[in-house]
Structures are given as C-alpha cells and as structure tokens.
C-alpha cells in the first residue's frame, strides 16, 4: 500500500506563507487549513523564511491526578515508562518526559532556566551543555534539569555542530560510552544483534557478545519478531508467539565427551549425583541423560545396572576447594574450557587455576591489615584475644659515649 502524497503547493499558498510566516510562525496554519504545521515548517525552510514569533513550549501529556498516578507507578510500583505509557494511552517518551520533569523539583534539583514562553534561556542552555560535556546519561540530565529527551538530543546535535565547526573535540558519548538501556544503538550494531537473533541465540548471550544492553536487545528482538510475523516467518527456535522452545548450541551445553564419561560411570554402577558432580553436569541434566541411556539399553534388550550405594555416609560430602566447580558461573567457565581441551586436560588446568587462586587469597589475607572494626569482630568471635603489652629494652648495655669511644681507640692502639 502506497502512502498518499499531499497536494502540491499552489502559488496562492506560497504567497500567503511568505507574507504571514515571518510574523505569525505556526499561527499561519489558521490561514492555510489544508497544511499541517510540519508541512509549513518544511516549506518555510525550503523558501529560506525565518520567523520572530516564539511559540510556547509544549506542555507535558500528563498533568494533575494522572501525573501523580504515573509518579506513584514509577516510584512505588517500579513500572517501566513503556508500561506507564500504555496505561495512559501515550507513547513511552511522553511518559518518561512527564515523570522525570516532575521529579526534578521533588528530588531537590534546580530546573533549567526558562523564559515566559517556557523555552530554555541562555543560562539554561549553558547548564545543559555543561552536563553534556561531563558525559552524563540522557535520563540523568532530564532528571537534574527538568527537560525532555528531545531537548537533550537537540542540544547535543547543535553543540557537536558548533564544536566541529570550530575544530574542537566532539562531546563524549552519553554515560561515558557505557552500554545502558537508554543509549542510542547504531544501525550497524542493531544489524549485528538481529543477525545473532536469526542464528538462534538468546538475549543474554547476544548482550555479552555485542556489548548492547539487555533492554536494548529485547526491544530489537520485539521489532524483529513483528517484522518476521508480517512476512509469515518466526525466529529460529521460537513458536508463532515468539516464545523460545529450542536453545542454540553454546558452551553451556553438556559436551559429548561428558555424556560418554557419564555413561561409563553409570555402567560402572556409580550413583547419578556423584557422577554428575564429578563430571560437572547438573543433576537434572544427569537424570535426563540417565533415562535416555536406560531407554537406549532397553531398546537393545539390556538393562542399566542399579547404582552401588556407599551405605551410611555423611549428609554433606567434603568438598575440595579446587574440584568440582560449584556455582553456575564456575560450571559454565569450565565448560568453555572443554571447547578447546579434553575433559582430563581441562580438569587439570582448572585445579591448577583454583589452587593458585586459593594460594593468592591466603597470601593476601595474611598480609592484609585489619581495621579496628575487623579486629573487634575477631575478638568478639574468639579468633583473637587481648593481652597486656610490655616494653622490651634494647639488648646492648647503655654505655656512655666517651667510654665507648675510648675503649675502641685503646683496642686499635693495642692492635
């Protein structure tokens, strides 16, 4: 479906625009009812027309009770600006502007100076430019100065153009280059994120690989999903509703070597949990693999032997500091080693790293000086105790200076 084009400008409309736009500005729209304000601005820019008329600044889309409710949803219920916008029937940017401008004064900040029309004065623009030079995030500038997101972006563009014309360095990126949900993502980075989504990867893995925040990746995924749905397609590994059903192969998956070692230990009648702990496999995954092995053996007419129970043992096994990896982060780090090493080599390498890390921690703890509060805590726990100190005198006898020199000279003469 093609977008309908507007009617071409007539000579009478252009004459009216030239006559009244310099004095009335947007007010000339009443004389040209068939043209929108945006169309008037574009045509005036093409004709080189400027206006001395200053319009009032746009008012926030939320006021009164609606604004109070939006602030409550943001501060108390911890709603996102997107959810607040949907609740009040406005866009996310309008909800963000209304709430942050209202919170500026409530949190004790001084809003940017404005004139009688609500526009920023020279002093207000200077304060905003100073915040841009400091590299603050856009949302922080909005909150501290009480301005909209579009105002921050426009002043950034204008200031960068002025700096570029004067041969100066450009402004630092928002947030000092930090990846956060409100930062602008370049087209190349957005395309890279979309390609990884089409490869079947998830949001967390894509955020780690590209450096884009998880919130931005989620929004890119939503737009990509809608675009594919209009074509009758879906994301790899997802159903028609966009819910992921199949995960792509990553370093977090159990390797084939681990599966073979688990099968050998199960045939050797080792309990499932002990084998899983030794082979760095999750308990749930180990039981699923055990059931798959049992079904495979049953298809061949064999039976998986029962595990050999150790009898009465301690409830909690004694765990070594070097093996096996305990936390999910350590487990995934070890599985990344399996991408380039065998299980035996990776285990030896992991144990060496853990021993060195424990040794370094022990040496650091031995040389670390305790604060007064830490000393009191150790005394209270019984690790340290308070004893009376004593002054230790020097072992050398305190002889007069002249006697020491005389005895030394006599010794030299006798020699």
From TrEMBL:
Name assigned to this protein: Uncharacterized protein
């Amino acid at each position: 479906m093609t977008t309908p084009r507007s009617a071409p400008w007539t000579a009478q409309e252009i004459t009216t625009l030239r006559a009244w736009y310099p004095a009335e500005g947007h007010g000339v729209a009443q004389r040209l009812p068939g043209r929108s304000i945006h169309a008037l601005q574009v045509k005036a820019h093409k004709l080189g027309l400027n206006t001395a008329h200053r319009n009032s600044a746009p008012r926030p889309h939320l006021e009164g009770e609606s604004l109070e409710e939006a602030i409550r949803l943001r501060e108390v219920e911890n709603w996102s600006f997107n959810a607040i916008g949907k609740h009040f029937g406005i866009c996310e940017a309008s909800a963000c502007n209304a709430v942050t401008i209202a919170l500026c004064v409530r949190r004790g900040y001084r809003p940017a100076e404005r004139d009688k029309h609500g526009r920023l004065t020279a002093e207000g623009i200077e304060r905003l430019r100073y915040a841009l030079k400091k590299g603050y995030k856009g949302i922080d500038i909005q909150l501290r100065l009480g301005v909209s997101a579009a105002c921050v972006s426009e002043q950034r563009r204008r200031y960068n153009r002025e700096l570029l014309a004067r041969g100066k360095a450009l402004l630092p990126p928002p947030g000092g280059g930090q990846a956060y949900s409100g930062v602008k993502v370049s087209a190349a980075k957005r395309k890279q994120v979309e390609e990884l989504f089409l490869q079947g990867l998830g949001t967390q893995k894509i955020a780690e690989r590209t450096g884009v925040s998880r919130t931005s990746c989620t929004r890119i995924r939503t737009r990509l999903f809608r675009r594919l749905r209009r074509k009758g397609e879906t994301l790899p590994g997802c159903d028609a509703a966009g819910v992921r059903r199949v995960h792509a192969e990553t370093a977090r998956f159990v390797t084939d070597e681990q599966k073979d070692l688990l099968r050998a230990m199960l045939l050797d009648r080792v309990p499932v949990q002990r084998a899983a702990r030794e082979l760095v496999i999750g308990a749930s995954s180990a039981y699923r693999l055990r059931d798959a092995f049992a079904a495979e053996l049953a298809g061949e007419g064999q039976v998986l032997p029962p595990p050999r129970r150790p009898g009465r043992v301690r409830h909690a096994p004694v765990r070594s500091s070097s093996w096996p990896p305990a936390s999910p982060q350590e487990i995934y780090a070890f599985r990344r080693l399996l991408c380039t090493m065998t299980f035996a080599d990776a285990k030896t390498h992991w144990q060496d790293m853990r021993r060195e890390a424990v040794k370094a921690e022990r040496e650091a703890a031995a040389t670390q000086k305790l604060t007064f509060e830490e000393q009191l805590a150790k005394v209270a726990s019984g690790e340290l105790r308070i004893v009376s100190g004593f002054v230790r005198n020097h072992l050398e006898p305190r002889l007069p200076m002249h006697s020491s020199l005389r005895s030394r000279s006599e010794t030299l003469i006798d020699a």
